[in-house]
Every structure is written in C-alpha cells, then in structure tokens.
C-alpha cells in the first residue's frame, strides 16, 4: 500500500521476480494464465516515474516502460522480469508477443541493431541476442537470468518445432527440434524431444532415422514409454512383425509395472521447459497407453500375422481384463486403439476357431449374441438418401441423433449376425453339419431385419460401411449354409443358396465355384460345364478384385472369408473337362 519510490524499486522487482518463480515452480504443473504480479510491478515502475497508465494492456505496458524508463538501476531488474514474462507468454503459446518483447529488450540495449540474419529463426535469434544483465551486484536470485534464458531458448525451439510438425513443414520442424535437443533441459524433456524427432522423421518417410531418434529417447529416459509405442508403429510400417511385437511386449510389461517417473538428473530449477511446453499436438504424440490397449494390439497383430496360438493367449488375457473395470480406465475420446468390445469378442472367437478350439469359440460368440439381443429393432430401414437438414436448422440435432442411433443398431445387428456366422463355421469344423445349418439360418434370419429402400438400394454414405459389412455377412452365411447342404446331400437347397449368393455379389468366385459343384451333383452337367467355362475365362486378377472390392473387412470376418473359399478340386475339373471333350466329339461326329 506504500507509494512507489524509485530507490526501493530494484528491491521490489527482485522480490517480485523471486516470488513469481516460487509460485510457478511450487505448483509443478504447466504455467497458465497471465502473471498479474508482473503487470502490477510495471505499474509501480510507471507510478514512481510519474507516468502511471492503468488502461494499457500488458504488451503496451512493457513497450511504454522499456521506452520511457531510463533509470540505470532499474534496467537489470526489468530485464529479468521481462524474461519471466516471456516464460508466461511461451506457456500460453504467444510466440509473437515473446518475439516483440525481446525485440524491445534488445533495442533498449542497442538501438538500431538487427538481431536476425537471413535464414535464421527470428524468435530464437532474438532470445539468443538478449544480453543477460549482470548479477554481481544483484540481490540473491532463486534462479539466475542466464539459466532462464537457456530454458527459454529450448522451450521456444521445442514449441516452434511442434507447430511446424503439426503444420506438415517437416524439414523446418526437424531443424527446430534438433535445436531444442541441443538445449538446456531435463532428461524427461530431452526424451520427449527425441520422440517428436522420431515422429517427424517417420512422417518424412525416413523410418530408419525415426528408429534412431526413438531409441535415443529410450536411452535418455526409459520411462518415456510413448517412444516405445512409436517404435512399434514404425516397425509395423516397415512390415517387421517380430520387431513390432517385441516393442509392444516391452511396452506392456513396462506399463504393468507402472514405476514412478525417474528423477531428473538436471539441476533443480523452478522454471523448467516442461512447465512451458504443453500443446495438444505434444499431448497427442506422448499419449500414455493403457496396458489393455497394448494387450489388444498384441492380440490383433498376432491374429493378422497368423500367429494363432499367441493371438488366443493375448485375447483371453484381454477378456480377463474386462473384469477389472476396463471401460472406466480407457479413454472414450476416440484416441484409444481399442475397437468396440463385441468386435474384440468376435476376433477372439476367430482366433479360437483357427486354433481348433471350436467349442470355446461357440461360447464366446454366445456372449455377443445374448448381449445384443435386446439392442436391435425388429425392422431396420435404410433409405437410399436421407434428408440432411441444414446445420443451423432446429431439426439438425435430431437428425444427427437418429442417424447415430441407426448406425448403432446396424453395428449391433452385424455383431449378432457375425456371432451366428462364427458358430456356424465352428459347428461345421466339428462335423455337425445340421447344427451348422441351424446357425447359418439364424444368421440369415437376423439379417432379414435389414430393409434397404430406394431405386438403387444403395444406403446413404453415412451408413454405407455398416451395410457393406452386413451384406458380406449375408454372402458368407449363404455360402457356408450351401456348403453344409452339399455335405448333407441336399443339393437343391445348396444350389438355391449359391444362386442367392451370386445375386448379392455377382461374380463372386467362391459362390460361382460352389454353384458349378451343386449343378454337377444334380446331374445338370451342361449348365455346370457352361458355368465352369465362364468361371475359367475370368482372370485371377478379376477374382482378386471381386474379393477385395469395397472397404477392408473387419478383422473378425477375415477367417470366415478364408473358410468360404472354394478348395481347388482336381477331380471335379477333370470330370467337367472329360464331359466337354466328349460333348465336342459327339458334335463333330
């Protein structure tokens, strides 16, 4: 409450500097908001000089103080306070304000001098050009201005590198991040910088360089576990499954142990780079995975790579984690690697089937079927085009809600139908053809709930993916049931199923091949031979294109697609060829 006095201001500003440092450092969390104490300090300086202005913003206040206050004894305390102001602005992402402040600080020292050469980063050049005030005659400081300058340089390079990385300017980002890596920071921050360098190199199409940076991050601080997850991602991109699985296994074990963060070996400072750098892009790059997410990735990659025994083990471990309240522990903001839980159950069933554990697969699928029973309406209508009201119209929110509800119902229908589909294949593998037919029929009966309306029966784009999956399930169920009808000698019913299959997916090679077999078994040899010739004329590329058309299949359907493929039959091909040769001879004679 005392009036500002010029002789006491150096002491006041030094006490303010120290107290703000203690305030920032004691919280041990990111600096946020404005430093109101700095503003009050500047107003005290102007008051002592007889030029108080309450209506100025903080930037204008700094400009006025540095341009008009010439007292020599105030220069060093003001410069130290300016560096502290820069820390607050850096933490707020106000890089332009920081550059302007250091321009003022440097101009006050040497008017007219340029501090940025061509090709250099302006902000870094300005910070480096700032002359730290002498501290020989200063009152005790809890953190020197020299150390604060080094930390500001590191944080400014890191922040700008992250901005350029997010903007896709990778060479510039790489240069700035390398500058930050050579700066003054703790091991924790250094590991984070190397992780970002690795991500930058990966996006530049340099996976080996990315691996070098990421391994360096782990050497600096093995608790920087996001670096390990990025290592797995790079190995995945390179197609090196062994390396990817090894990285994921190490990550899972490290996350399970969940040790405390390693203490920094750097000197303890109140203002540190980690308090100044907290951007959404950094949060995204350094997102810490939950152990269950990593366990799922291990299961998924093993299944995709055909390591069925390992996949089964990982899926069963993951399902056991569900008993530990998994849904409360995994983020629901879309950043999680986990798919919907019913899909994980179905993938587990697929792995169990491939491992020959058919009864276990049936049990897992029954869980999905029972839990989705009450979530599907009797009839699901999907129109060719849905009226999309304007975003600003009152009905927009309602329409979006209805669309989301319909999408959810289609997903539930797909999961339930896929459960029956997997059970059908499992019973078929157990040699129980009648039970397999029952499950395939239940799958097809469920799918009758889906009704497509419109001239082209093409659903709106928002629901296209869900409808394509349901149509693929219908195709696989028809082929599966037809195969079992052939096993039971019910050739007419098999023929109908294969004909329906070709209506759903014209030219499907598996359905067309089984149709030939059904016709041949029914002694309709001329039709069978004609279909066989038509199928033989189609190139392998066309077959592959037919199978791979549209969006990629969900992982839980891949094994069903493989089981539905027609096994090459030398005997059938030879019989048809003999029939065609005999028919040709009869025609010529």
Topology:
Elements: H1 9-27, H2 36-48, H3 58-68, H4 72-91, H5 95-109, H6 122-129, H7 145-167, H8 170-181, H9 187-203, H10 207-220, H11 225-238, H12 241-257, H13 273-276, H14 280-285, H15 291-304, H16 308-321, H17 326-329, H18 341-354, H19 358-372, E1 380-383, H20 396-429, H21 433-447, E2 450-453, H22 464-487, H23 491-504, H24 509-521, H25 525-537, H26 540-548, H27 555-563, H28 570-588
Parallel strand pairs: 1-2
How many strands, which pairing sense, and closed or not: the largest β-sheet? Answer: 2 strands, parallel
Q: Please report the distance between the alpha carbons of the first and last residues.
A: 123 Å
**Number of helices, where a helix is a run of at least 4 consecutive DSSP H or I residues:** 28
Helix content: 55-70%
How large is the share of residues in beta strands?
under 5%
Number of strands: 2
Strands in their spatial order, largest beta sheet:
1-2
Task: Tell me the overall shape.
Answer: elongated
State the low-pLDDT regions, or none: 541-548
Structural class: mainly alpha
Radius of gyration over C-alpha positions, nearest whole angstrom: 34 Å
Q: Which series of helices and strands comes N to C?
A: HHHHHHHHHHHHHHHHHHHEHHEHHHHHHH
Give the integer mean of the pLDDT values. 86
């Amino acid at each position: 409450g005392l009036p500002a006095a010029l002789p006491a201001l150096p002491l006041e500003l030094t006490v303010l500097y120290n107290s703000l440092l203690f305030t920032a450092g004691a919280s041990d969390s990111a600096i946020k908001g404005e430093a109101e104490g700095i503003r009050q300090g500047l107003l005290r300086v102007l008051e002592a000089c007889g030029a108080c202005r309450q209506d100025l913003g903080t930037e204008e206040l700094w400009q006025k103080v540095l341009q008009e206050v010439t007292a020599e004894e105030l220069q060093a305390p003001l410069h130290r306070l300016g560096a502290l102001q820069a820390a607050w602005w850096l933490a707020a992402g106000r890089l332009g304000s920081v550059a302007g402040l250091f321009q003022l600080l440097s101009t006050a020292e040497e008017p007219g001098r340029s501090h940025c050469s061509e090709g250099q980063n302006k902000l870094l050049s300005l910070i480096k050009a700032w002359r730290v005030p002498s501290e020989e005659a200063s009152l005790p400081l809890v953190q020197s201005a020299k150390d604060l300058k080094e930390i500001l340089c590191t944080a400014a390079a890191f922040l700008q590198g992250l901005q350029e990385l997010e903007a896709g300017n990778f060479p510039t980002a790489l240069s700035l991040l390398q500058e930050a890596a050579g700066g003054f920071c703790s091991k924790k921050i250094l590991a984070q910088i190397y992780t970002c360098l690795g991500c930058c190199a990966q996006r530049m199409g340099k996976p080996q360089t990315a691996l070098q940076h990421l391994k360096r991050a782990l050497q600096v601080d093995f608790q920087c576990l996001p670096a390990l997850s990025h290592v797995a991602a790079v190995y995945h991109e390179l197609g090196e499954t062994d390396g990817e699985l090894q990285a994921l296994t190490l990550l899972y074990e490290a996350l399970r142990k969940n040790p405390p963060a390693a203490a920094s070996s750097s000197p303890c400072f109140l203002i540190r780079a980690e308090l100044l750098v907290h951007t959404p892009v950094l949060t995204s790059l350094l997102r810490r995975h939950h152990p269950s997410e990593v366990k799922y990735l291990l299961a998924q990659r093993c299944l995709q790579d055909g390591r069925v025994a390992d996949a089964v083990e990982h899926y069963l471990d993951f399902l056991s984690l569900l008993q530990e309240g998994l849904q409360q522990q995994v983020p629901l903001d879309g950043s999680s690697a986990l798919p919907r839980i019913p899909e994980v159950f179905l993938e587990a069933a697929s792995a169990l089937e491939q491992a020959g554990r058919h009864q276990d697969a049936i049990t897992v699928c029954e869980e999905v079927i029972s839990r989705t029973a009450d979530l599907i309406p009797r009839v699901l209508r999907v129109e060719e085009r849905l009226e999309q009201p304007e975003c600003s119209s009152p009905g927009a929110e309602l329409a979006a809600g209805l669309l989301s509800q319909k999408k959810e119902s289609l997903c539930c229908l797909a999961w339930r139908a896929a459960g029956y589909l997997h059970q059908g294949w499992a019973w078929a593998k157990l040699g129980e053809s009648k039970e397999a037919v029952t499950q395939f029929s239940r799958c097809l009966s469920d799918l009758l709930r889906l009704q497509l309306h419109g001239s082209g029966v093409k659903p709106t784009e928002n629901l296209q993916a869900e409808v394509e999956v349901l149509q693929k399930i219908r195709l696989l169920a028809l082929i599966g049931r037809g195969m079992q009808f052939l096993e039971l000698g019910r050739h007419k019913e098999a023929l109908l199923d294969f004909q329906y299959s070709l209506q759903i997916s014209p030219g499907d090679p598996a359905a067309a091949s089984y149709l030939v077999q059904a016709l041949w078994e029914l002694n309709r040899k001329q039709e069978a031979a004609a279909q066989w010739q038509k199928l033989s004329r189609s190139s392998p590329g066309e077959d592959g294109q037919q199978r791979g058309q549209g969006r990629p299949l969900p992982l839980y359907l891949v094994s069903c697609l493989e089981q539905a493929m027609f096994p090459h039959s030398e005997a059938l091909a030879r019989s048809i060829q003999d029939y065609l040769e005999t028919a040709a001879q009869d025609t010529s004679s």
